Amino acid sequence: MCKYLQVFMIPTLKTKRLILRPLSRFDQDAMVDTIMSDMDVMYWLPYSDEVSTPEGQREIALGYITDFIKPWDEFGFGVWAVCIRDTELGTLGNFIGYCGFIPEQIEGAGPELVYAMGKSMWGKGLATEVSIACLDWIFIRLEIFCVHAVTDKENLSSRSVMEKIGMKHEKDVDLYDSVAKGEGLLQFYSIEREAYLRKGETEVGR
Length: 206
Ligand SMILES: CC(C)(COP(=O)(O)OP(=O)(O)OC[C@H]1O[C@@H](n2cnc3c(N)ncnc32)[C@H](O)[C@@H]1OP(=O)(O)O)[C@@H](O)C(=O)NCCC(=O)NCCS
What we know:
Elements: H1 2-9, E1 13-14, E2 18-22, H2 28-36, H3 39-42, H4 54-75, E3 79-84, E4 95-102, E5 112-117, H5 126-139, E6 146-151, H6 156-164, E7 168-173, E8 186-192, H7 193-199
Antiparallel strand pairs: 1-2, 2-3, 3-4, 4-5, 6-8, 7-8
Helix pairs in contact: 2-4
Bound molecules: coenzyme A.
Coenzyme A binds at residues 41, 44-45, 115-117, 121-128, 151, 155-158, 160-161.
């Protein structure tokens, strides 16, 4: 009963080309097909070294989904499934990735924006489109004053998305054991609510 109630409480967002709907455990296969089974996508994401087998991919997909759904209950934000709205991209409703927020890992940094898209969808401005929808949504929640994102220095595509949505590279951080894992420092980007709203980046794709 509670689980159904929870799904209904998570909003669905629409952009010009995409729908952001609640993620669920039923997305496990789509998550594997789109994200975990593609090393070009996983290369930049946590647990990339654990997806060498189909079983590992399924396990990691379920772990992602669980971690992405969990914050909705406690914090009122979380991560959405990104699906096709514009049929020029493919079949209506097809799962193509995820985007949304996980709780802050650095005190005072605000929620962390996270996203990944299936490779066939790269370079069409879709991550930018959904990230703006997510920022629009979260910044009308008055208690959220800033949002951050972290990425590898070499992840030029992700850094480009962060910059296009108005985030600024503030510092480099040792997060998610990145230094211990030999990945070095991660680039920390952030944006404050006031600056975002003042910049008029809202209402993209509505
Ligand atoms: C990062 C990711 C979500 C971007 O998705 P996307 O839908 O292709 O993003 P967009 O099309 O909105 O923007 C990508 C931008 O990066 C640019 N870009 C891509 N490759 C680039 C490169 N090698 N050098 C510089 N810019 C690059 C694109 O040109 C585009 O900018 P433009 O619109 O100004 O041309 C996608 O590549 C992905 O899923 N990567 C794997 C997972 C990942 O890295 N997630 C983020 C972890 S921090």
